[in-house]
Amino acid sequence: MVFYGYKRPDGRVGVRNHVLVLPASVCASDTTAKIADQVEGAVSFHNQNGCSQVPADEAWTMEVLSGYAANPNVYGTLVVSLGCENCQMDYVVREIRKKTNKPLRQIIIQEVGGTPNAVELGVRYARELVAEAAKVQREPFPLSELILGTECGGSDPTSGLAANPLIGEVCDRLVDAGGTAVLSETTEFIGAEHILARRAANPKVRERLLFIIRRYEEALARVGEEVRNGNPSPGNKAGGITTLEEKSLGCIHKGGHRTIQAVYDYGKPMSDKGLIIMDTPGNDAASMAGMAAGGAQVIIFSSGRGTPSGHPLVPVIKITGNRETWKKMSPNTDLDASPVIYGPETMQEMTDRLFALLMETVNGKQTKAEALGFVETSIARVSNYA
Amino acid sequence: MQKCLFRLTIQQIKGNNMRNAIVISSTDNVAVVVEPVRRGEPIIWIGPDHRELSITAATDIPIYHKCALRDIAPGEKIIKYGEHIGEAGAPIRAGEHVHTHNVVSIREELV
To answer: B80 vs A249: CB contact, 8 Å cut-off?
Structure first.
């Protein structure tokens, strides 16, 4: 089996052919939005960060900014900075260049004479990049070039019963075909860490996995928060969840059942094949940002309640196991997974359907979030702004 | 006195199935009901080979809550997703509601 993607000069393969107008900081974000609005084929997003951040947060911001530019769904990037922010243009460009040799243009707002000039120049640069991008044709590639991210949000009891196990089956199928599936959301591993640890490929992966969970709990403890107490919540219990292990198992099922080959820090470029883990927060937008920065070209997202979430660069396929949610939220949802619970299709048949939708999507079919033009994203943080 | 009120029946699916429960992994000893079930009503799910399996509810079971598929002795593992989610804290009969009143959470030693 093959998919049809865009070959990049750095050797990776995209499933979209975007031109990214990248705001280096919050101060450049309005300007990049105005540029991208005027250029068909260009995309931008609101970067809340990029300045006044503690070093650990700045590192994450830089990882995501450079990772977005390197994401294989991006043909080339126009970086727009204000000029005086912490994430300086030369710093952003250096980080991008560590990850990719794709086309890159730059505009510094304070140097070109403010927003009107930056927009005029930015529109010209972005149009040139889009014209070049249009010359790249889709070609067939093996599934080993695909990195599939998984996400769940707006969960309800059907998430752990239907949607997450279904995504897990699709992950298994992709991994067996040589591809990569990413399990994310470290918050949700807590309580099931012993189960994940048993599935680690080797002691190093096992140690790393337990380390990221410990680190997460310690970070929460520093601000006086604790995950295990009061979890599962009274609402979870009323919904039928008895123990934290059970709740976490419902979440981690979306990664499937294969051996865990590697554990990546937030936003780091992912290169291992098979099932891998990325250390991301439970916040959907920030978790998806980490996986997209790491090179995921597509994400499958399970939602019990339904969610509009998308991503500026990566198609996000949303599924629900709740048939009432499907009725209400189908304008925002790509697949009804409730037959896993109620029939008539079997899990096997539903796996075929979701896998087929995954293939159609990577080959170019728009997701609901893409059709709506949704580009919101967010970058994880450990601290308040400095 | 406990009589065996619960019988596991196996039959092929006929036409529209009436499933009201789901068993996630074939090794699980609990099912999850996807409709509210009253004591004495059948709990029906699709097992391996598309077979319809059923058991009679020994207690009322709220929607999305768990039901024991067989008798579970105190200290025995409760298996869902093919993994254990805790241990029986009391004897649990087949068909009985499985929840916080008869399950205890165990944190496994990792070292």
So the answer is: yes
Smallest CA–CA distance from B62 into chain A, residue: A240
The pLDDT of residue B109 is above 80: no
**Cα separation values, A74 from A120, A265, B97, Å:** 22, 22, 52
Rounded to a whole number of angstroms, the distance from the CA of B2 to the nearest CA of chain A is 26
The token pair at A55 is 């070093």
The kind and range of the H/E element at A220 are helix A203-222
Numbered residues of chain B with Cβ closer than 8 Å to any chain A Cβ:
16-17, 19, 22, 24, 32, 34, 46, 50, 62-66, 78, 80-81, 83-86, 98-100, 103, 105-106, 108, 110
pLDDT in tens, A278-300: 999 989 999 999 999 999 999 99
Q: Are residues A178 and A292 in the same domain?
A: yes
Residues A51, A176: one domain?
no
Q: Does residue B2 lie within any of the structural domains?
A: no
Which chain B residue has the Cα nearest residue A234?
A: B100
Q: Is the dihedral of CA A251, A380, A230, B63 positive or negative?
A: negative
Whether residue A157 is predicted with pLDDT greater than 50 in this model: the reply is yes
Mutate to test the interface with A, among B83, B87, B111 (most CBs of A within 10 A): B83
Quote the pLDDT of residue B17: 54
Are both A152 and A118 inside the same structural domain?
no
Which CATH number do you get for residue B43?
2.30.130.110
The domain of B15 spans 9-104
Tell me the residue range of the domain where A62 lies: 18-133
Give chain A's domain count. Answer: 2
Contact list, A193 vs chain B (CB under 8 Å): 110
With CA atoms as reference, report the closest residue to A302 among A149, A77, A113: A149
Supply the pTM of this predicted model.
0.92
% of chain B with per-residue pLDDT over 70 = 81
